[in-house]
Amino acid sequence: MTFKERQSRDRGVIENNRLMELHLYPGNRCNRDCDFCTVFGSPKGEYLEYTADHLDAALRSVMLHEQGALKFYGGEPTLDHKNVIWAIAYLRSSAFTGAIVIYSNGIRADQLIQILESDPLHNTTASLNYSITTGDGAPQMPIPSLQRLEAYEEINPGAIAIGHPDIVDSGRGVDPFTGEETRPKVNSQCPHCYPVLKSDGQFHACPFAIENNAPHFQLGTIDSDPAAIAQNFSNFFTWLDTVHQPYAEAHNLPACTVCWKHLAELPTPQAAQADAQILASGVV
Ligand SMILES: C[S@@+](CC[C@H](N)C(=O)[O-])C[C@H]1O[C@@H](n2cnc3c(N)ncnc32)[C@H](O)[C@@H]1O
Ligand code: SF4
Ligand code: SF4
């Protein structure tokens, strides 16, 4: 395999109310409809393009220096590659010097390469869908697309990585997954992802649960104070460790299954935080 697996970085890093990483999500419109897809991707999916208001909010909440990272996913980003190229130009003209990552199924290889080539700082890379790149668990991408991407990676080492093989129980989830039996499917612990800014203006705590509208995931909107977004995200992590993980262990459930099917039984991070403060103050 030409493509190397992308390495994860430290989780939950916040500096001066700015997150080290932020995902950008314009909806679940896609040219595939994988049977395991966490976002319910489909050609009939929703799509709202990136705008200056949306990107300005991202620029207020992510680290702007080299450590920062903005990650475009979806849906399939190459379906509106012109809007993504415009967004990258906007981010670069607004002092964002961090890394940009495009999650893609690679089928529209030419458009994906145009996106990578458009970055004036040459710091935009791609992460390919494992199943569609390998053909394990989904129909493989057309061979000419694969060959084009492999040739690009050979000339530009590190430009195109491959995603993780793990399948988590979120969205369409693990039950319909038809890939190799050996692929990891039971993730007992939450991976503690960085949050998402949706192009409808909502900040959401988890990229895997992005189509889950439970109040537990709501961090604010593009009109919120960035300090409040950072605090809400921090509270969400505390909730994962003090409420969510103990529940998953007590009921012997994979972490994402708890978010997908059991949240109604759990207090929101805001309610859990308020309870902890009352207990700490000794007023009951
Ligand atoms: C939701 S897709 C969006 C971008 C693009 N369409 C793609 O497939 O890469 C982003 C990543 O999520 C992964 N993914 C989708 N469903 C998943 C699941 N149930 N568990 C783990 N990863 C999943 C995909 O394999 C892909 O690498
Ligand atoms: S995993 Fe990616 S390619 Fe597959 S349906 Fe979901 S968004 Fe589309
Ligand atoms: S456990 Fe919940 S918060 Fe963590 S990745 Fe899964 S769905 Fe997201």
Can you give a write-up of this model?
InterPro entries: Aldolase_TIM, rSAM, rSAM_sf. Keywords: Iron, Iron-sulfur, Metal-binding, S-adenosyl-L-methionine. GO terms for molecular function: catalytic activity; iron-sulfur cluster binding; metal ion binding. This protein is an alpha/beta fold. It has one domain: Aldolase class I (TIM Barrel), CATH 3.20.20. It contains eight helices and eleven strands. Helix 2 runs parallel beside helix 3, helix 6 packs across helix 7 and helix 6 crosses helix 8. It is globular and about 65 Å long. The structure holds S-adenosylmethionine and iron/sulfur cluster (2 copies). One iron/sulfur cluster binds next to loops. The site of S-adenosylmethionine has 22 residues, from strand 6 and helix 4.
Task: List descriptors.
Aldolase_TIM, 284 residues, two-stranded antiparallel ribbon, single chain, TIM Barrel, Radical SAM protein, iron-sulfur, binds S-adenosylmethionine, nine-stranded mixed beta sheet, binds iron/sulfur cluster, 8 helices, alpha/beta
